[in-house]
Amino acid sequence: MAWFSKKPRIAVDSEPAAEPQPSRMQGLWAKCEQCDEIIYRQELEKNWMVCMHCEHHHAWTARARLAATLDPDSFEEFDKELEPQDPLGFTDSKKYKDRLKSTRKNLEENDAFISGVGRIEGHPVSIGSFVFEFMGGSMGSVVGEKVTRVFERAFELKCPAVVFSASGGARMQEGIFSLMQMAKTSAAIARFRTSGKPYVSVMLNPTTGGVAASFSWLGDIILAEPKALIGFAGPRVIEQTIRQKLPEGFQRSEFLLDHGMIDAIVHRKDLRSKLGQLLGMLG
Fold first, then answer.
1. 44, 88: one domain
2. Lower CB density within 10 Å: C or N end of the chain?
3. Strand 199-208 versus strand 161-167 pairing type
4. Same structural domain, 32 and 91
5. In total, how many domains does the chain have?
6. How far apart are the C-alpha atoms of 162 and 154, rounded to whole Å?
7. Could you tell me the residue range of the domain that residue 44 belongs to?
């Protein structure tokens, strides 16, 4: 018998290795993506998920954002029962319906958008916010429907509309059904404008693709958080397409403000008061 076919003389441990126990300190601390400072997570959450050392705006959940923006106990959620379907039977590395199922279970959200009505410093608003954690905040047919209903509800109630956008764009798993939402939401805004009430669009990091190319850019007032990536295609894709080096900070909110593409950059801690001021003036 050849030597390489012989069984090893060293005994193999058949017992499975014990899984490491989670540390009691796990999750108590966070590392800033910008300055690498280690921050007590509870303090970071109290500070609107903004680093106390460098003012970097970390990702913030949609529900926490809505709770911090709206008057206490004023939010009434609508359309929570709407769930995306799989009209194309789409499969990539995973079936779309399976991806939806696992994402719903992990996030306890039905899709990438939360909408409803509430008040900001006493001003009634129809409001919505993207859930970026849900498939990159991509816009499928249900997200487009919920965004449309934000403006339809604002039209019926004769109140301003506010939308927080954070999205990678149209959801490829729904193909043309997703792209149709760009026209659908834009048409809803055109109808809403006949009411004479303002639409405030707040762009977060990132706001790209079909979301940026439709309703996010159509606000009467367009606000953005510091250093948010905003644009249709990403800088790397543009550089590879035009084969030119882009300017420093291209597509960041500061660059867009300098070039007149947005109206203001607002720190997260000031956003509620800024929205209240705008709604008081325009609403």
1. no
2. N
3. parallel
4. no
5. 2
6. 9
7. 27-58
**32 is an annotated ligand-binding site residue:** yes
Report if pTM > 0.85. yes
Q: Which of 58, 76, 104 is the last residue of a domain?
A: 58
The tens digit of pLDDT for each residue in 193-244 reads 999 999 999 999 999 999 999 999 999 999 999 999 999 998 889 999 999 9
Q: State which amino acid sits at residue 154.
A: A
Residue 18 lies in a domain: no
CA distance 45 to 102: 26
* DSSP string across 231-250: ESS-HHHHHHHHTSPPPTTT
Q: Tell me: do 120 and 222 sit in the same domain.
A: yes
For the ranges 10-14, 37-41, 111-115, 262-266, which has the lowest average pLDDT? 10-14
Give the CA distances from residue 146 to residues 218, 232, 235, in Å, rounded to whole numbers and listed in that order: 17, 21, 29
Structure tokens at 46: 């109290």
Return the closest-CA partner of residue 128 out of 187, 79, 72: 79
Q: Looking at 59-63, 131-135, 203-207, 279-283, which range is the least confident one?
A: 279-283
* pLDDT tier, 113 (very low <50, low <70, confident <90, very high otherwise): very high
Within this chain, do residues 52 and 105 fall inside the same structural domain, yes or no? no
Does the annotation flag 159 for ligand binding? no
Residue 54 marked as a ligand binder:
yes
Residues 40 and 125 in one domain: no
